[in-house]
Each structure stands twice: as structure tokens, then as C-alpha cells.
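Complex record, two chains
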Amino acid sequence: MNRFVTLIAMAFGLVFPGAAGAQTAKDLVGTWNQVSNVNIRQDGSRADIFVPGSKGVIIFESNGHYANVTLNAILPKFASGNRNTGTPEENKAVVQGSLAHYGTYTVADKVITLKVEGSTWPAWTGTDQTRTIISFTGDEIKWSLAASIGGTTEVGWKRVK
Amino acid sequence: MSRRNILSLSVITALGLALLPNSSALSQQKSLKEQIVGTWTFVSALDVHPDGSKADRWGPNPKGIFMFDGTGHFSQFITRSDLPKFAAKTIDQGTATENKAVLSGLVASFGSYTVNEVDKTVTTHVDGSVFPNLIGVDQKRLILALTADELRYTNPATSTGFTAETVWKRAK
């Protein structure tokens, strides 16, 4: 009987770690490409932010550091060729059409906590931002967050091989 | 050989290995590619003007990160530490002044990288950047120093049009 119980426990243990979701920071380590980004407004309407031309990468390092750059459109090149001298329209297009931040991260209870050290959205700098893991399969992950444009955003990622 | 002798031999061998200056010898044998992989935190970047004068465009206490993963991908972020928080609550309501402050005060990019062991260069190929002009651009940096703790290079063409000398230290 005892052996039978042990076997059952082993079977569950072997089968379910992957399906149970990302439990530790170790599960996230690697480089991920963004594959979806949907904003859910306060009124419940959904807007697909990940339009053609969108791309994003997040790298989670094994020593607890992360960096994320997401471009939500094909952004205009600056006519001046200089980052310091964008026109108001160029600056606006980039600030509103992108999001980049970096810092350190931890994972607990299916929540990723990002300690943001720098960000294109200055309100996040110096704060903790959380991502609630909706699904995780080892090579794909989807999480939700409070969006920088208001409402909630669901973001999907695929591991880069 | 008795068990005790084997134990003694093991201890002596372990001591001998520990005493060898193998850590520095090993790091010299490692390729630049092997040494650059990991996370680096920003120390400084000085623009070098055509007349040879140097200028710091990142202000007091700049910060940033440069990540090189083991499979050839990088992500980089350098920022001034005095960027203004927007008066509005959402990112799409920044004023012209706030938007400009953000974009002239930071750079964030990702893409792929290659290391040339002979030329001692690391070249990033930018796939995405908050400075759109960098997208698709190869940036070659000449490595001046690469140790366990420090990475120093010159960037002959920065996003503000100058040559820059940049220093990073390995993130713990």
C-alpha cells in the first residue's frame, strides 16, 4: 500500500511541475520574445496593442536581473538623426508607442515582482511592479499587469531558442 | 592504500589545487565571448568630442544595465537618474517637455550580438530600440578591457553622434 501511494505521488510529482506554472525565478531564466499584448480597459473593452510591427524582448538573468524593451508599433525615425533633438511629434510617438524598463525580479505564488531601477515610464522607476502569471508551459508564458495606459494588460511571451 | 591515506591524499590534492593561481589563469584562457556573457551595470560613458575634450551626457548618478545572454541576445538600458515623473497618471498624457526629457535622458535597445576575438570587438545588431534610428543598425565597440569585474569599450558612433568611452562593472 505504502509503495502504491509513493508511486502515485511520484507520478504526480513528475507530471505536474511544468503544468502547475512558474514557481521559481529559475523557471523564467532566459530570453523571451513578446507574442501578444492586449489592453483591457476599465469598461471591459479589449484593445490589441500588439499591432503589426510590434516587438518586445525580456531577458531574465539567473542572478536576478531583468531588462525589457517593448515597441508597440513601427516607430518613426527621428529626422534629425539625434536622440536629443526629436520633434514633439517624434518624441510623443516613441514615448507612447514603447515601454522599456530594467531592474531585479523575484517570483512567489505565481506573481513576478519587478523592482524597477529605470524605465521609459518614470512613474515606475524606484517602484515594485507585479506581473500575475496566467499560464506557463516552460516555453510560453502569459501574465497580466496594471497597464501604463490604464486598465489591465495581458502580455504573452515565447522563449527564444 | 588505507582509507586514511586516501583521505590524506585527497586533502593534499585539494589544497594543492586551491593554492594554484588557477582562477586568473582560467580567465585568461576564456574567450571574450565567454567572459562577456552575463549582466553588467553601468558605471560611466564619456563622449569624446572631435577636439578631444570629453563630456558626460548622463548627469549625476547615471544607471543602466547591459545583458549578454549565452545564445547571442543582448538588452541594454542606460538612463539619467533625474528623469521627471509625468504630472499625468498615464504614459500617453506626457507633455512635450516630459516626453523630450525621457527620450534625451535614456536609451534602451535589444537585439543580437557577436564577438570578434581577433579584433577584440563586440558588435550589437539592434532589433528594437526606443531610439528608432538605431533599429537595424550594427554598433561595433572596441573592447579596451574585459576582466571578471569590468568591461570597458569605446563606441565609435553613439545615438548622439559622438564617440564614447564606456565602463561597466559585473552585476552581482
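Note: The CA atoms of residues 134 and 159 of chain B lie 7 Å apart.
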